[in-house]
Amino acid sequence: MSLNKEYIKKNFKQKLTSMFAEDINELNKYQYFEALSSVIKDYISKCVKNTNKYYLKSKQKQVYYFSMEFLIGRLLESNLINLGIRDICKDALSELGINLDEVLQAESDAGLGNGGLGRLAACFLDSMASIGIPGHGCGIRYKYGLFEQKIKNGYQVEVPDNWLKNGYVWETRKSEKSVIVKFGGDVQLINENGKLKAIHQNYEPILAVPYDIPVVGYKNNIVNNLRLWSAETIDKDFDFSSFSNGDYLKAVEYKYSVESITQVLYPDDSTEKGKLLRLKQEYFFVSAGLQSIIRRYEKMKLSLDSLDKYIAIHINDTHPSVAIAELMRILIDEKSMSWDEAWRITTNITAYTNHTILTEALEKWPVDMFKKLLPRIYMIIEEINRRFCAKVFDKFNGDLNKVNKMSIISNNNINMAYLSIVGSHSVNGVAKLHTRILKKQELKDFFEFYPDKFNNKTNGITHRRWLIQSNPKLTDLINELIGEKWIKHPLELKNLEGFSNDKSIQDKFQHVKYQNKINLSNFIKQKYNIDVDPDSIFDVQAKRLHAYKRQVLNILNILDLYNRLIENPNLDIIPRTFIFGAKASPGYFLAKQIIKLINSAADKINNDRSIKDKIKVVFLENYDVSLAQKLIPAADISEQISTASKEASGTGNMKFMMNGAITIATLDGANIEIKDAVGNDNIIIFGLTANEVIDLYKNKNYHSRDIFNSDQRVNKILTQLTNGFLGVSNYEFNSIYDNLLFNNDEYFVLKDFAPYVEAQNRINNLYRDKNKWNKMSILNIANSGVFSSDNTITKYANEIWHINKIDFNNKLLEEN
Length: 816
Ligand SMILES: *Cc1c(COP(=O)(O)O)cnc(C)c1O
Prior knowledge:
GO cellular component, one term: cytoplasm
Enzyme class: transferase
Radius of gyration: 27 Å
Function: Allosteric enzyme that catalyzes the rate-limiting step in glycogen catabolism, the phosphorolytic cleavage of glycogen to produce glucose-1-phosphate, and plays a central role in maintaining cellular and organismal glucose homeostasis.
Bound molecules: pyridoxal-5'-phosphate
CATH superfamily of the largest domain: Glycogen Phosphorylase B
EC number: 2.4.1.1
Mean pLDDT: 96
Catalytic activity: [(1->4)-alpha-D-glucosyl](n) + phosphate = [(1->4)-alpha-D-glucosyl](n-1) + alpha-D-glucose 1-phosphate
């Protein structure tokens, strides 16, 4: 069976009839989307079957990527691209009078993540399938994903993201593969034939039902699996006898409380709330995932002693770190394994990625809460800690201070990062600088104790979604110049370097960027009725709103530039359009006020005729994967201006680079590696270094008020925040003002202000030389291949998971 045009047309029409029983002309775009996706899914399902058959038969080692978040976005187009049939489908639909692009837009985003961490998991899945790694996702099927952001009167308003309201074509419910997860109850240790045995009683059993989403590899017939778990009541326990007792409401309330476990994604990015429901979510999907992995393994009739030869588990940050204790529980309590053997297997299987050094993001659970919800798991963590502390005591010659510092349990809290390190064979940071800071500072004691565990794996992005899918014009141009080999071998993008000095080719790149800017301008005009000039510089900062990411620094520069324009409307600058996209956590007041500030500045500036449209400010609401795909190809400038040392890696920076934007950046996270890849001349670097930041924290000799007092520009802008200049009450921006002045500007916004303004002026002058600018842009694209997650995943597979790539096309031919 081949996926040609006739196949698509025929099956699409049949689907429309069987699904909707109406004439094709009576149906809407969403129905077209559902039918086409269903045709594609039918095809994919056969690949799923074949892939699994092969995995089982060959007993290939599998890796399971455990993550609280998978920010996958839309799937129809990426599936069409990976199957190699986007153009075929476009033609097929066009012959039926239907525009494929409009159909693609009808899909809603699967927004099961907050930002970078969740998007990384999605990029990794795409790369694993595409390069032939048997790797699967394990996560939660949240009924509500990340909230939808609306802007009302300049303020963020959150609307629930009811993404499942029309069903979800890509998922398959697998009721028969459900497992039971146990909460609460009490545990007794009894002596059975000289062995301690744990008896867990009076627990609450919750049914975990898996929903599988296929992950299609790029033109290789491999389809891996993303398994998301949903919480349900066990029917027999949904006790209808209570109904007759007049407790009907109780019964329904119970059902509701069970389902609440997978009801909603926590919208906190980089903040840890320590909430019971969150802990329930974590244990729920981890326990369900592990149970199903063990069950599948046992189907292969292999001994559990060699589990670590066939299985790898990766935990994406500490959220799934209870996996360590849960695997111990299964092996010891359910499979009667000894502690030592279970520990050997567990640590060989598990690997951990650390994503942040922000203290407010490090997960800690109060012992009392934890013990009550997971009594047996707590006992196991205590024992892990007891044995670990004894080893620390030995190694550091009885240094109790060290033991106290490194103990997994201390001050009535369980430190999940420490548990993750102790229970894994690999601990990786996500960019060189981040890994260095982990080793030298945040996790120094652990690095000294386990030097061989620590390693770096710089994050990456899938070039299939972030270039081929989001920027088809650029993709065509690249193919025209260097062929298509780079698609399977992204490092080959390097071959573009040879064209960077060629003026006629520079013009072609410039033209692609211009077309993308026109598309974005049209979108902005249509949605916000703001006129933006595609000839202006598109300067973009799009990422979650957080103080450390310093959207405030960006807006302060804009206000300064505005002040200069008011003073001198003929100021010789290249017109600029400043574009923002950012969701703030609903409970993060300062972040929400920063959104209001951006919008207030936008109102004031966009409506001031005196500055002759030289600058515009646009805040795009609801920054999600689909908006990112529209926005990034149109960017001239990528704003990566976090306080050095705070952004562990960043991945937005890589997406912009791959689409030819020039980065203005601090030396933070992967920005440093971007600089190394493109060279100093092709990136704009400014501001404090990580070491300087760390020293300033240590020496406490930063006083933001000094800058307020000495820099006229800063003084003027901050005064404008509180004197009604922006058309709001004098008190509106007190939180921002106080943060910068009274709380001493924790993220050194004022300290980096002057260097940032200077860097922005450099950009203005660089852009005047279009040849030079285009050359820089081409060199950025040409050197972005190292940031393909295909490279990142190859390193994870070789150095952490010890899994070889499979060449499935050949295997499949052998079979048939
Ligand atoms: C890539 C991406 C992010 C991460 O951006 P950073 O700049 O690395 O913080 C967040 N949200 C979405 C929708 C993304 O696509």
